[in-house]
């Protein structure tokens, strides 16, 4: 048992921050993230023997995601958000491709808070794929495993997520009042 | 070269293309400001997210709670003992119940295993979806371009682990385009590529293991038809109508039957 605990602390516990970060963005609440991560860690510990040398981080994040889904179902605290249509990838491209943004790089007003708010406002399937790709730096195959969808779906979701974030960002910039001198 | 499609360009940005496809996209980028601007958008968004998005870390109090919870998991004796004091049981409402019996623990273990180990069939289908999509988008449809089965079949011998049935069915409407090596189910698979009307049909084949073949499926608009012949497992994938796909499958199965008799 102690040996198991030692291996768990060496292989899984280093990913606690990533698990928390993922849970924090999924739940959008620090209290819920605490609960989800703790539940996930215990499930991971009990099922640790099933890991057998495969990617511990992806495995843990998949459990986090599952615990979050279970918690959502139990509490039914969130309104049902329909999945975006996966069939057509072209409109995502049109959105991304058609946006000239000469000012994008120069605008920094409250950027962090704005980005946090924009990210929080995205549908969950977009949020999770963006966090896994851009923050956790996982590749398509790893993301497909964590989110339990085919790689093609990861690709189209990522494309739509990037376009949606970009569009919201653009709207924010255009809608924001200019800073007083 | 025409614009690469959106997902292809994105895959380039995410470092997901092979060397050949990468070189091709880069040649296109040299002379296409529009696609360069799309890539710049991706890069700006990534830079902003990595620089500005709040980078959360597990709070110390959560680490402490976890350590205590794991301590309580250590031995069955410990888990049967009631938690020390009120504060811990209040802080850990969900595990306290689960730790009270071996059955609940067993269920939790089962859940964790299920989460990470979907049925082998779905892993295989996911792999096939990915391989099929990659073949369509990366200009890596065929490694050996030939309408002659006597060229394609020997090529497989040197490049894959299997030697599938290969034939040209142009008269029946299924033109042999060539063959390709791919990676599937942890082994080198052979792919025979056919054209039917405007549709591409990939026929994957790999050495059959003991596990059962998945049921025929439709995913993302693509049909998957599985069958087994001799030591090999086959899967035909296409977005053509299912009846058209089954037509090719029947022709291939007919050949196999002929081989077995001959």
Layout of SSEs?
The complex is a heterodimer of chains A (181) and B (262).
Chain A: H1 2-11, H2 16-27, H3 30-46, H4 56-75, H5 90-97, H6 111-121, H7 124-135, H8 140-147, H9 151-175
Chain B: H1 6-13, H2 19-30, H3 33-52, H4 60-73, H5 76-80, H6 85-91, H7 93-98, H8 102-116, H9 120-137, E1 144-145, H10 149-159, E2 175-184, E3 187-196, E4 199-207, E5 217-219, E6 222-229, E7 232-238, H11 242-261
Antiparallel strand pairs in B: 1-2, 2-3, 3-4, 4-7, 5-6, 6-7
Give the DSSP E fraction of chain A (strand runs of 2 or more residues). Answer: under 5%
The description of the largest β-sheet of chain A is: none
| Uncertain stretches of chain A | 77-109
- Mind telling me the C-alpha Rg of chain A? 18 Å
Report, as a whole number of angstroms, the end-to-end distance of chain A. 65 Å
Instruction: Please estimate the helix content of chain A.
Output: 55-70%
Secondary structure category of chain A: mainly alpha
Question: Most extensive interface, residues per chain?
Answer: A-B, 72 and 58 residues
CATH architecture of the largest domain in chain B: 3-Layer(aba) Sandwich
């Amino acid at each position: 048992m102690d040996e198991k605990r030692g291996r768990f602390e060496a292989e899984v516990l280093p990913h606690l921050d990533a698990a928390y970060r993922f849970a924090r963005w999924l739940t959008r609440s620090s209290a819920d993230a605490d609960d989800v991560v703790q539940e996930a860690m215990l499930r991971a510990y009990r099922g640790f023997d099933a890991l057998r040398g495969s990617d511990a981080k992806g495995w843990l994040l998949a459990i986090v995601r599952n615990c979050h889904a279970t918690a959502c179902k139990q509490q039914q605290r969130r309104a049902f958000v329909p999945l975006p249509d996966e069939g057509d990838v072209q409109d995502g491209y049109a959105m991304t491709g058609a946006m000239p943004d000469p000012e994008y790089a120069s605008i920094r007003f409250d950027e962090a808070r704005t980005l946090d708010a924009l990210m929080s406002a995205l549908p969950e399937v977009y949020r999770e794929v963006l966090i896994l790709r851009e923050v956790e730096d996982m590749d398509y195959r790893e993301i497909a495993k964590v989110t339990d969808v085919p790689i093609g779906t990861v690709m189209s979701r990522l494309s739509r997520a990037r376009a949606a974030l970009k569009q919201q960002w653009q709207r924010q910039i255009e809608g924001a009042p200019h800073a007083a001198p | 070269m025409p614009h690469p499609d959106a997902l292809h360009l994105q895959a380039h940005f995410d470092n997901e293309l092979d060397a050949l496809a990468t070189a091709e996209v880069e040649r296109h980028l040299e002379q296409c400001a529009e696609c360069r601007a799309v890539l710049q958008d991706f890069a700006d968004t990534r830079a902003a997210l990595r620089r500005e998005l709040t980078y959360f870390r597990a709070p110390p109090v959560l680490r402490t709670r976890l350590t205590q919870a794991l301590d309580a998991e250590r031995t069955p004796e410990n888990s049967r003992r009631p938690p020390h004091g009120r504060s811990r049981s209040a802080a850990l409402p969900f595990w306290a119940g689960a730790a009270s019996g071996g059955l609940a623990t067993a269920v939790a273990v089962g859940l964790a295993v299920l989460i990470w180990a979907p049925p082998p069939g779905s892993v295989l289908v996911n792999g096939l979806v990915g391989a099929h999509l990659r073949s369509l988008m990366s200009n890596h449809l065929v490694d050996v371009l030939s309408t002659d089965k006597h060229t394609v079949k020997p090529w497989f011998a040197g490049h894959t682990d299997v030697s599938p049935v290969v034939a040209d069915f142009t008269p029946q409407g299924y033109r042999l385009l060539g063959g390709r090596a791919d990676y599937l189910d942890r082994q080198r698979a052979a792919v025979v590529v056919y054209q039917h009307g405007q549709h591409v049909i990939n026929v994957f084949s790999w050495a059959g293991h003991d596990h059962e073949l998945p049921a025929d499926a439709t995913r993302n608009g693509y049909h998957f038809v599985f069958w087994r012949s001799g030591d090999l497992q086959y899967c035909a994938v296409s977005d053509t109508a299912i009846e058209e796909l089954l037509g090719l499958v029947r022709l291939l199965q007919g050949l196999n039957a002929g081989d077995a008799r001959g």
